[in-house]
Each structure stands twice: as C-alpha cells, then as structure tokens.
C-alpha cells in the first residue's frame, strides 16, 4: 500500500538529478535554446518562492514545507486508501515539496532551469519539483470536483 511514497521518491530523485546536471553542465545564467522564442533551459537560482516572493526567508520556507509534508502524509494515511487519484496527487506534492526543501537546506537557494516564454510573457523559471507541486495541486482540485459530483449524483439517485 505504500507505492505512492515510491512515486514521491522517484520525483525527488529525478528533480535532484536534473538540478545536479544543470549545476554541473551550465554556468549560472547560461541559456540553451530548446525551441526558439518559446522554451529555453536557463540556469537560474531563486532564494524565494514563486516569482521570487519572500526572497531569503529560509526559516519561513522550512516551516511551511514541514507543515505541507506533515499535512500530506496525514491525508495520505487517512484518506488516500480508497482514492487512487488523491494518493497520486498527494505523492506529487510530497515529492515536489521535499525536492525544493533539499535545495533550500543544502544550497540555501532553489535551482531552476525550465524557461518558457508564453505569448511574450517570460514565465518565471522553474524546475521539476515546482511542476510536480503544480500538477499535484491541480489533481487535488480535480479529485475534489469529481468527488463532489459523485456525492451529488449519489444523493440524486436515492
Ligand atoms: C510551485 C510552487 C512554488 C514552490 O513552492 C514550494 O516549494 C512549496 C513546497 C513551499 C513554498 C515555500 C510555499 C508555497 C508558496 C506558494 C506559491 O509560491 C504560489 C504558487 C502558485 C502557483 C500557481 C500555479 C504558481 C507557480 C509558479 C511557478 C511554478 O511553475 C511551475 C514559478 C516557480 C518559480 O518562481 C521558481 O523560481 C520557484 C522556485 O523553484 C521555488 N519553488 C517554490 O517555492
């Protein structure tokens, strides 16, 4: 029953491996064009959260991440038994949160490298852990909506 922790471990491994590769093969600020005017690999560091908010507030990030991890593990043990989608989304959030936590703990900054320009807006440079977090949160919203529909449907059928 603990296969979803394995998903989190795999996400952490891929995230840390990708960050390690970026650090080893690219200079800070170096940019590799993948798709001209759309997708670049740019070696970037962020001491804050999304969009660089709360720059340098590491203690805050440690506390928030520990709260997020405890909350996710609690929900996994309590609710994820019968709900595969919920279990997967929680493991994505767990993997993403821990992935960035490792950077914050050992590097005091987060390594970012996915650089997308979407309709002339240069989206903040992010990493695999961020992607796992956004996918995990999005899936939780979808799982909740599906659950709502099922509950309502169930009541309507009675
Ligand atoms: C994804 C959450 C950010 C991630 O949170 C974490 O670590 C968690 C575990 C702990 C944080 C201390 C607390 C969450 C703060 C919430 C937040 O920030 C609002 C997010 C909204 C979201 C709506 C969709 C935007 C998403 C944006 C981005 C990600 O796009 C894929 C751009 C990422 C780049 O700014 C990149 O430099 C960020 C850097 O990697 C550090 N990452 C973090 O702080």
TrEMBL record:
UniProt entry tagged with the keyword Repeat: no
Location within or outside the cell: Cell membrane
The encoding gene: lspA
Organism: Virgibacillus indicus
Keyword annotations: Aspartyl protease, Cell membrane, Hydrolase, Membrane, Protease, Transmembrane, Transmembrane helix
Name listed for the protein in its UniProt record: Lipoprotein signal peptidase
EC number: 3.4.23.36
Topology relative to the membrane: Multi-pass membrane protein
Catalytic class of the enzyme: hydrolase
């Amino acid at each position: 029953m603990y296969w979803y922790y394995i998903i989190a471990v795999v996400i952490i491994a891929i995230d840390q491996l990708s960050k390690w590769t970026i650090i080893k093969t690219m200079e800070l600020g170096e940019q590799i064009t993948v798709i001209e005017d759309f997708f670049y690999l740019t070696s970037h560091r962020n001491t804050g959260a999304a969009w660089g908010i709360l720059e340098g507030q590491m203690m805050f990030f440690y506390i928030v991440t520990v709260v997020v991890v405890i909350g996710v593990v609690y929900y996994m043990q309590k609710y994820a038994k019968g709900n595969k989608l919920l279990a997967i989304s929680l493991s994505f959030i767990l993997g993403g949160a821990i992935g960035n936590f490792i950077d914050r703990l050992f590097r005091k900054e987060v390594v970012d490298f996915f650089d997308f320009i979407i309709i002339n807006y240069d989206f903040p440079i992010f990493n695999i852990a961020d992607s796992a977090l956004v996918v995990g949160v999005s899936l939780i919203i979808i799982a909740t909506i599906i659950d709502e529909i099922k509950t309502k449907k169930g009541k309507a059928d009675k």
